[in-house]
UniProtKB/TrEMBL annotation, chain A:
It comes from uncultured marine thaumarchaeote KM3_24_H11. Its main location: membrane. It is found in: Membrane. It comes from the Archaea. The lineage of its organism: Archaea, Nitrososphaerota, environmental samples. Pfam families: Sdh_cyt. InterPro entries: SQR/QFR_C/D, SuccDH_FuR_B_TM-su. This is Succinate dehydrogenase cytochrome b556 subunit (SdhC).
Length: 143, 255
């Protein structure tokens, strides 16, 4: 508590426990965004192996044919689907779409912006990501 | 004497009273002397209707007068008594102990505000950011010198901004905001909601100048629509809604 502004820091930013599913979606969006960025960089690096000719390419591709490689790709599928689904919800929200209408506030003051439309958007992004991950597993492990 | 006390004993108990007790843990910290905060614990009895502020004042009255707490109206109107109650920003005068559903109530100063002492925090920065967005009607016409007696508004026009005008500057939203946990320069949900309050007012002509003020790197773009501000607001202001409407103007979704 010696810090001047008593800020919670990254720990507080990433603590999803107190403010409902919207704050969890916020955290997942950051994590999946950073995860995808990491994957994207690795992906550019990986595909650049084609410059080493067919052998180099095949060698590198073999990494994704292991169990760990498959699980990693399943995670990437999940991150991709959640990030895209939730990203579309956030872009609409950022434009003021589906965030409710101003009205005279009344006790118990439930905020109209935290409404079922956006909650459905979050839950469906999570469910879609889970379904895509299961499909991915079925394809990769199913042979 | 014995008779007096037996008369007192005969008083029927208040049928509504259900006196129980909780452990109240109060964060103590004086930046002048202390390295870090310590918790002091007090057992406080409460009724169904006792607020957290009343419990703290009870401690001040009977146990330790030095506990620093700011309050004034005791009715969720002045915006003085914001603090973390069991980890969440709330108004102490608007939070009943019975609704917390816990035998232990922990009170700490709000996050993202410098601590003056114990539960009292500095509001200078919040007032600065509030002031920055020009929290007043901008209109060259004035009700004083125009022919019209007053600027009339339809009930619909009032409804467009009245919820945002409910803000009591308590700072709970700034304390809950995930951007404010790390960014000391962010203008914050309180000020952004007030920018929308005036932009949405049919008497105001300052929309462009306010959009200019918030369209900067530590302005509106640091909001990620996590919604925590709206979830803790005790007055139904819903800052997250106002902020997305403002961004809608900047992104061209609204005009
Ligand atoms: C159709 C696909 C995508 C959509 C619709 C989308 C949408 C979004 C949106 C709306 C945000 C802002 C969220 C906010 O305001 O908090 C965001 C953040 C981000 N996205 Fe994406 N995105 C997509 C694909 C990607 C890809 C492929 C990558 C990686 C290369 C990526 C990396 C990031 C990162 C790093 C962030 C910042 C996260 C943060 O600061 O919280 N996104 N995305
Ligand atoms: S918007 Fe709500 S939480 Fe924020 S300062 Fe105003 S009344 Fe308090
Ligand atoms: S004492 Fe005024 S808001 Fe709580």
């Amino acid at each position: 508590m010696t810090r001047d502004e008593n800020k919670e820091g990254i720990k507080g930013m990433a603590n999803p426990g107190r403010y409902g599913i919207e704050r969890i979606a916020y955290l997942l969006m950051r994590l999946t965004g950073l995860g995808l960025l990491g994957y994207f960089i690795a992906h550019v690096y990986e595909t650049s192996n084609i410059l080493r000719g067919r052998m180099g390419w095949d060698d590198f591709l073999a990494m994704t044919q292991t169990t760990e490689g498959h699980l990693f790709l399943v995670l990437v599928i999940g991150m991709c689907v959640f990030h895209t689904g939730n990203g579309i919800r956030i872009m609409l929200g950022h434009g003021g779409v589906g965030v409710g209408k101003p009205a005279r506030p009344d006790y118990p003051y439930n905020p109209a912006s935290q409404n079922y439309r956006h909650k459905i958007g979050i839950y469906s992004s999570i469910v879609l990501a889970a379904v895509a991950m299961m499909y991915g597993m079925a394809v990769m492990f199913g042979e | 004497m014995a008779q007096v006390s037996s008369v007192a004993d005969e008083q029927p108990p208040n049928p509504l009273s259900t006196t129980k007790s909780i452990l109240l843990r109060i964060s103590r910290f004086n930046p002048e002397f202390d390295e870090t905060n310590k918790f002091m614990e007090f057992t406080v009895s409460y009724e169904k209707w006792t607020t957290v502020l009343e419990a703290i004042l009870d401690v001040k009255k009977h146990h330790d007068h030095s506990v620093a707490v700011r309050y004034s109206c005791r009715q969720a109107t002045c915006g003085s008594c914001g603090m973390l109650i069991n980890g969440k920003p709330r108004l102490a005068c608007f939070t009943k102990i019975s609704e917390l559903d816990s035998n232990v109530v922990t009170v700490e100063p709000m996050n993202n505000f410098p601590v003056i002492r114990d539960l009292a925090v500095k509001f200078e920065r919040l007032f600065d950011t509030h002031h920055k967005i020009k929290p007043y009607l901008i209109n060259e016409d004035s009700e004083v010198d125009s022919d019209e007696k007053e600027f009339l508004q339809t009930p619909k026009e009032v409804e467009n901004f009245i919820q945002f005008a409910n803000c009591i500057k308590c700072g709970l939203c700034n304390s809950a905001c995930p951007t404010m946990t790390t960014d000391s320069s962010f203008v914050g949900p309180q000020a952004l909601a007030q920018a929308y309050r005036y932009v949405a007012d049919s008497r105001d002509k300052g929309k462009d100048s306010r959009l200019d003020i918030i369209d900067e790197s530590h302005g509106i773009w640091r909001c990620h629509f996590a919604g925590s501000c709206s979830q803790v607001c005790p007055k139904g202001v819903d800052p997250a809604m106002g902020i997305q409407f403002l961004r809608g103007y900047l992104l061209g979704f609204r005009s």
